[in-house]
Specification:
With 118 residues, this protein is an alpha+beta fold. It is 14% helix and 31% strand. GO terms for molecular function: lyase activity; peptidase activity; single-stranded DNA binding.
């Protein structure tokens, strides 16, 4: 995932797509950035059920002393083998619903965002 993304799905769409019993009222967001609160779908105490929670975007490795979020993304080809990610990749997964994301291209010496809709 890149550094900015969009979540414009309605609570009803999220509930239907992910099989959620309850989804809080959410407003469409078109510029979600690292360290902001984001809606995630994660297992509940009953592993057969999922819930929606608001969590701060950024990985806090299990060995972190300060609890501050660090990396915001990882490469699929290395995530299982790197110490920073391997424990979380194996044991602490969640789903980040997204309606789109941005990639930045340099045009005329300036970075210009390009939105990709999902």
């Amino acid at each position: 995932m890149c550094g900015r993304f969009v979540l414009a799905a309605s609570p009803e769409e999220l509930a239907g797509h992910f099989g959620l019993d309850q989804v809080p009222a959410l407003t469409a967001r078109y510029n979600i950035a690292p360290s902001q609160l984001v809606a995630v779908v994660a297992p509940k105490a009953d592993p057969a059920k999922r819930g929606l929670a608001l969590l701060k975007w950024g990985l806090v490795p299990y060995w972190s002393n300060d609890g501050q979020p660090g990396p915001i993304n990882a490469r699929a080809e290395t995530v299982a083998g790197l110490a920073t990610f391997s424990n979380s990749f194996r044991d602490r997964r969640c789903i980040l619903p997204a309606s789109g994301f941005y990639e930045w291209c340099v045009q005329g010496g300036k970075k210009v965002p390009h939105r990709f809709r999902l």
